[in-house]
Design brief:
By secondary structure, the chain is α/β, with parallel strands linked by helices. The protein has helices spanning 30-36, 40-49, 71-88, 104-116, 140-149, 162-169, 177-180, 185-200, 202-205, 215-218, 220-231, 240-247, 258-268, 284-292, 298-313; strands spanning 3-9, 53-58, 93-95, 97-98, 123-126, 153-156, 211-213, 248-251, 273-274. The strands form 2 sheets. Strands 4-5-6-7-8-9 form a 6-stranded parallel beta sheet. It is globular.
Length: 315
């Protein structure tokens, strides 16, 4: 079985409530048609690649791009609409909830409703770095509720903080937009989010909290030995590797590299690696054929393709 769990969609009502116009997808494009589809077009591309199940989540920035005063009501409606699509294809689709963060208590309540009433498997939160970082205690109720419900939170990138955009990427935002996003900026933003969570002590308060990172861990597994050693020199963080390896899972979304995958396995263990495509930003067929042809043992492929996700998400 093949399960892909960073697979996006676009809610038709999102544009009406967007906070930042630059996030709005271009209208009337083949990409928008594909990402908006929750029926036959999506299923056709899954079938062509041999993907049995998609765990679907809203495209970035999702609820984090919606105006604060309507974020809670929009997330509720969007989750209901995604649930309806899943009910049409219950053996092919599952869902990660859109969770509003401007009101963390309301966000936690919506997470619980999505899990308990709609049967979702966790939540996806997109980057908040246009405002505070997620380690601020105002957001902890969402993580605390995720622990209570025993579901993971998927941390997904979005555009970097405007100040960072200006300081680090000025001059390239128009000529090389993927430098700011998937090529580099996303990794910096989401990797920083993840590291701040470790440093914040939230995993002491929530010892059973589970976090998923896409893109093979936003380079943290590659850097983990150096991070662990450096943070142990003169700070209270003496066990970064231990905390990260216990609480974080990583996916292959948009990152089909066997050496990079092997690094993740060597550093944090194969049971922490989950298969994802990042559809429709990346190709279903390319991702599946890459892992099938990676030269790994069949038992290891099975663990990544489905076994680890089935266990984590209780599929």
């Amino acid at each position: 079985m093949i399960i892909a769990l960073e697979e996006h969609y676009f809610d038709a009502d999102w544009n009406a409530h967007v906070d930042t116009p630059r996030h709005t997808p271009r209208p009337d494009t083949p990409f928008l048609k594909r990402i908006s589809d929750l029926d036959q077009l999506r299923l056709k591309e899954m079938d062509e690649a041999g993907i049995d199940l998609q765990v679907i989540s809203h495209a970035p920035p999702g609820a984090q791009g919606v105006k604060d005063d309507v974020a809670v009501s929009w997330a509720r409606r969007a989750n209901d609409r995604l649930h309806a699509a899943i009910q049409r294809h219950p053996t092919r689709f599952a869902g990660f909830a859109a969770v509003p963060t401007s009101d963390a208590k309301a966000g936690a309540d919506e997470l619980e409703r999505a899990i308990s009433d709609l049967g979702f498997k966790g939540a996806m939160i997109n980057s908040l770095t246009e405002g505070p970082f997620l380690d601020e205690k105002r957001y902890w109720p969402i993580f605390e509720r995720a622990q209570e419900l025993d579901v993971p939170i998927y941390l997904h990138p979005s555009d970097p903080n405007p100040a960072i955009m200006s300081a680090y990427y000025k001059g390239y935002t128009e000529t090389h937009p993927m430098f700011v996003r998937a090529g580099w900026g996303f990794m910096v933003e989401t990797g920083t989010q993840a590291m701040r969570l470790v440093l914040s002590g939230i995993f002491d308060a929530c010892p059973d909290l589970k976090i998923i990172l896409g893109h093979l861990g936003e380079t943290i597994p590659y850097q983990i030995a150096r991070i662990d050693e450096a943070l142990s020199r003169d700070t209270p963080m003496k066990n970064f590797r231990e905390v990260f390896s216990r609480h974080f899972y990583v996916t292959t979304s948009g990152f089909f590299s066997t050496p990079a995958l092997q690094c993740c396995i060597d550093e944090i263990g194969i049971d922490r690696v989950l298969f994802s495509i990042d559809w429709p930003y990346a190709s279903n067929t390319a991702g599946v054929e890459w892992l099938k042809g990676s030269g790994m043992a069949d038992t290891d492929k099975a663990a990544i393709f489905s076994d680890n996700a089935s266990r984590l998400l209780k599929l």
